[in-house]
Amino acid sequence: MQLYELTGHELKEKLDKKEVSCQEITAAFINRIEQVEDQIKAFVTVTGELATQQARAYDDAEPVPGLGGIPYGLKDIICTRGIRTTASSRMLENFIPFYDAFVAARLAEHKGVLLGKLNLDEFAMGSSTEQSAFYPTRNPWDLERVPGGSSGGSAAAVAAGEVAYALGTDSGGSIRQPAAFCGVVGLKPTYGRVSRWGVMAYASSFDQVGVVSKDVRDCALVMNMLAGHDQQDSTSIDKEVPDYASFLTPDIKGLKIAYPREYFQQGVDSEIVQQVMNALKHYEQLGAIIEEVSLPHSEYALPAYYLIAPAEASANMARFDGVRYGLRDQEADNVVDMFSQSRSVGLGDEVKRRIMLGTYALSSGYYDAYYLKALKVRRLIAEDFQRVFADFDLIVTPTTPTIAFRFGENSGDLIAQYKNDLLTVPINMAGLPGMSIPCGFVNGMPVGMQLVAQPFDEGTIFKAAYAFEQTTDYHRARPTLGVNING
Amino acid sequence: MAISEKQVEQVAHLARLKLTEPEKQLFAVQLTAILEYAQKLNELNTETVEPLHHILPVYNVFRKDEARPGTPREEILANAPLIEDGQYKVPRII
Question: Which of A114, A366, A376, B59 would give a disulfide with B49, using CB separation of 3.0 to 4.6 Å?
Fold first, then answer.
C-alpha cells in the first residue's frame, strides 16, 4: 500500500507513531500528483513548494490533533491568502486574495498541508467541470467520463490519491454529485453549520462548504475542524458543535430510515435504483427500520432551484465589473462599456446564461410569476421534509440519476444537464445536511447513496454512513489509474 | 412564453453583458426552454403559501460597533486592474 492510497486518519496514525514524517507523506502526494495529474487535471494550481515548507514546519513542532499535518486540497473558489484563487474563471485568472477564507484559516491552524487549488465549473455553476474556463477534469475511474461538478477537481483528486481529502462547496449537489461519480464520500453540512466567509458566492441561500474524503471517519475529522460559528458570516449559526467522531459507532438498531418513492422513479437509472435498494436491505439487516414515504413536492425542486439560484447568482456576479479586481477590458472609453465588455470577455457561457436567467426572473413584471413563485414552492418542499422527519431519523435516496456521463454527452440539452441535480437540489432547498457514500458499481463506475438528516443532525448521518461502511467494502475500491506508471 | 432576441438584448443591458449575435440567438432559445420548464411550478396552487426567503430562523444579526484594524489599502489595491494615486481608475463617467 502506497502512502497516497491511505486515508487521512491512517496517515495520521503513522505520523503520530513516528513511523513516517509529514515530509515523507507530503512527498508521496507530490510524487503522485506528478505521476497522474496530466491525465486527471484536477488542479488549477499546485502549491508543492508551500506544502513542502508546511510539512517541514509540522515535523519541527509539537503534533497537532485532528487531521493536522495531513495534505489536502481546496476547491479554487475558497480564498487563500497570497495564493491565486480563480473560481476557474478568466475573470479571476490572476486574482490573489489578501485573506484566507474562514475554512482555509481553520485548516491552516490545524497545521494541514495545502497541496493546491482544485478545478471546478466556473464559479461553481455546472455539474461536470466542463464549464471550467481552463480545462475539464477527468474521472479517475474512466478518463472519458466527467468527474461531476462543480467540485469535480476535489472529488477526482481524492479518488486519484492526489490529496488525502479536499474541501468543496455545494449549492445544488456540487459536493455530493461528484463524490458519487468518483466513488468517494462527500458531505454538504446543514446550511449555516460552516462559515462561508471568504468563499466566493454563487447562490447565497444555498451555498455551503463541505468535505470530500476517502471514508466517513476522515469526513468527521475534517468537519471537527470546520464546523462552528463565525461572526463574519451572518448566516453562520451559533450552535454547539459535537465531536463528529463520537458518532462513529456501528450500532444502528432501531434507526428509522425513510426512502421517498419519488427519488426511485422515472428519470433515475434502474440499475442505480437497484443498488440503493440493496443498500436499504443491508440497513434492514443491520437492524434499521425501513419504510417508504412520499415527498410530493420534490419534483418541483429543480425548476424552482433554476429560478432562485440564478436570481441570487445574477446579484452576486454584479461585483465583477472590472473596477476593483478581475479582468478589465482596457479598450472601453466609457464606464458602462467597460463593465459590459469586461464581463463579456471574463465570464463563460454558463455564468452568462445564469446571470441572464436570474436578471430576467427578478425584473419587474416577472418577479412575482417566477422568483416569488419559486420561493413559495421552496417552502412546500421544506415542509415535506419536516413532515417526514417527525417520524424518521434519516432519509436515503440515490445521489444521482445516472453514473458519470461521457464528456459532451449532455452538451446539447440544458435541461438534461440540469437534471444531474434532480435528487440533490431538494436537500439544498430545505437547507438540510446530506452525504453521498459509495454503495456499488454500475458498468464499472461508482454509484452514490445519499443520506439526509434534519438540520444540524450531521451526527445521525455519520452514524448511519459509518455502519454501512464498516460492513461493506465499496469505500476501499480505488480506480486502477496510474497502476502502470511507476507503481 | 418565447423570449425574443429583443428581450434578450434588454436583459443583457440590465445585466451589463455585451452579447454577440450568435449568443443572443442561443440565449433566446435556451432561456425560453428553461422558462418553459419552470411553468411546471404553475401546477401548484401557492395562493396561501408564504415565500421562503431564509431557510434558517435567523433574523437581524448584530455585533458591537467596535473599531478594528482594517486591511491596508495597498493590499486591497494590489488586485485592481488600474490605479492612480492610491485609488481605482476608471474611464470618464460624466
Answer: A376
Catalytic residue among A154, A171, A174, A298: A174
A458 SS3 class: helix
Q: Is there a contact between A373 and B46 if contact means CB atoms under 8 Å apart?
A: yes
What backbone torsions phi and psi does residue A291 show, to the nearest 5 degrees? -140, 145
A352 at the B interface (CB within 8 A)? yes
Complex-level ipTM:
0.96
Rounded alpha-carbon distances, angstroms, from residue A394 to A102, A178, A459, A462, B42? 30, 22, 11, 11, 30
Q: Is the pLDDT of residue A81 over 70?
A: yes
Nearest to B81 among A328, A370, A380 (CB): A328
- Whether residue B53 is contained in a domain is answered as no
pLDDT in tens, A146-191: 999 999 999 999 999 999 999 999 999 999 999 999 999 999 999 9
Residues forming a β-bridge with A256 = A289
Q: Which of B15, B27, B44 sits opposite A314 (nearest CB)?
A: B15
The reported pTM is 0.97
Chain B contact for A309 (CB, 8 A cutoff) = no
pLDDT of residue A73: 98
Superfamily the domain A3-250 falls into: Amidase signature (AS) domain (3.90.1300.10)
Return the H-helix or E-strand segment holding A103.
helix A102-109
At A289, which helix (H) or strand (E)?
Answer: strand A289-293
